[in-house]
Amino acid sequence: MAALRPLGGLRGKADRRPASPPIPVPLSAYVVNCGVYRDGERLPGRWTHGEAITDVREHGSGFVWIGLHEPDADQIKGIADTFGLHELAVEDAVQAHQRPKLERYDDTLFMVLKTVRFVEHDSPDTTNEIVETGELMAFLGKDFIVTVRHGNHSGLATLRSELDKAPDRLQVGPAAVLHAIADRVVDSYLEVSEKFEDDIEEMEGRIFAPRSHVSSEQIYMMKREVLELKRAVTPLANPLRRLAEGYTPLVPEQVRSYFRDVDDHLTTVSERVTAFDDLLNTLVDATLAKISLQQNTDMRKITAWAAIIAIPTMVAGVYGMNFEYMPELHWKFGYPLAIVVILAICLFLYRIFRRNRWL
Question: What is the CATH number of the domain that holds 310?
């Protein structure tokens, strides 16, 4: 046993060693894409963020578009230092869970947009989620735009490919990219609201169908999803309006008119979402009224059967008192007569309740 003691001591020393620090994740793991654009055309090659902005500023033209996916504070720090991003905006971009907003920090704009995706399902009665949300943040400068994405459904790869094929749009500068992102997000609002409307119409038809059973929990679930969509749509109106009205020189005049168009589309979505909210309030009231009516019908049936059952219970209770002198107690036809009387009274009550639609 003495020979085993050194091993135990070595194991104890190993257990007391400090935990190794986490392995740092390189910035390239968070950078989805980094491109340099000049005269609307994307320059070939792979770029780091430092090389890209250096090339743009040395030539005095073009801009950089960097896309990040859920970076942490340490990983975004290098980009923030290179592009001069404000620490408060950087903190919001890392933490996410922000309301749609537009803020100006010196020569940089910071914009937050909520992204939404319709969760496909067979029926609104069986699903627990209809709208999935994410976030897109954008830092806009005179020669760069940095986009930060949170969520797996808000990718910009398709949009980037479309813009790469439209150099006329990108000649304006990074503000054109910000408009394209806002336009794509608002278009997704329209798509989701159209599919949501189909679900509401289906639920409405089921609620007002005769003898249908609809759970109020599903209506409340749809109400919750509409509120989620409303929190993404409504706060975005003010930022878009400010961009369209010349809030900053970073957005040139030719781009402001496009933001006005996006704002018009957002107004359409906002009105539709408000209508959904009002309609669901009506459906909630209708569902509760229908449930209350069903409960009243059940109570009437229970009351009717209780009244019918009370007759034989009363007769049995009277004759169960075992008094010696009771009417027809020693008559041989007393028992059959009592049964006939009970059945006759029960049948009479049944017909009355049936005629009054209690049964």
Answer: 1.20.58.340
The pLDDT of residue 270: 93
Q: From the CB of residue 84, how many other CB atoms can be counted at a distance below 10 Å?
A: 13
18: in domain:
no
The whole domain housing 337 covers 293-355
Structure token digits, residue 357: 């639609």
| DSSP-assigned letters across all residues of 104-168 | EETTEEEEEEEEEEE---S-TTT-S-SEEEEEEEEEE-SSEEEEEEESSS---HHHHHHHHT-HH
Report the pLDDT value the prediction gives residue 18, as an integer from 0 to 100.
Answer: 47
Give the Å distances, CA to CA, from 302 to 229, 295, 305, 349, 355: 44, 10, 5, 14, 16
Has residue 11 been placed in a domain? no
Predicted confidence at residue 30, as pLDDT, reads 59
Q: Are residues 37 and 162 in the same domain?
A: yes
Q: Which residue has the tokens 């309301």?
A: 99
Yes or no: say if 76 and 92 are a contact pair by the CB < 8 Å rule: no
pLDDT per residue as tens digits for the range 161-186 = 999 998 999 999 999 999 999 999 99
Q: What are the backbone angles phi and psi of residue 124, rounded to the nearest 5°?
A: -65, -10
Q: At what angle do helices 174-207 and 157-164 cross, to 10 degrees?
A: 130
Cβ neighbours of 21 (radius 10 Å): 6
Residues 72-120: pLDDT tens digits?
888 888 899 999 999 999 999 998 888 999 999 988 999 999 999 998 8
Q: Is the pLDDT of residue 340 over 80?
A: yes
> Is residue 1, in this structure, part of any structural domain at all?
no
What total of structural domains would you count in the chain?
2
Q: Are 359 and 301 in contact (CB under 8 A)?
A: yes
In a domain, 8, yes or no: no
Contact of 235 with 99, CB cutoff 8 Å: yes
Radius of gyration from C-alpha coordinates of the chain: 36
